[in-house]
Amino acid sequence: MRKNSIKNTRVNAEVQRELSNILRDGIKDPRVAPMTSVVAVSVAPDLKTCKAYISVLGDEKAQSDTIKGLQSAEGYIRRELARTINMRNTPEITFVLDQSIEYGVNMSKKIDELTRNLKDGEDI
Questions:
Q1: Over the stretch 81-120, which tens digit does the pLDDT of each residue have?
Q2: What is the pTM assigned to this prediction?
Q3: Domains, the chain, ranges and CATH?
Q4: CA distance 109 to 91
């Protein structure tokens, strides 16, 4: 299976959907923040490994605690994924903190501030 094939795209979408359900309903670890979402999933073509990009709403401590909690619950998450998705191999999951949403919000604030300063006639 090639990396950008239709089958791989469907597998990525299905794993992302099921991971979101597992994080929403199944994780009881207090380290995992309640506002945690799966932004994207990249399953290797051989279905052995998987990178899950996680976005956490909160400060840096909440983000690091959430990643640690997810890494410690990786066995449970993988078992639940194997139970819900019928695949020959259940991928080994690596959780990666995705800060693109936070970066976009920060850039939007800077642009708004800059346009407000230009309207007021201030120099940059």
A1: 999 998 888 899 999 998 777 788 888 999 998 888 888 8
A2: 0.77
A3: 6-99 (3.30.300.20)
A4: 38
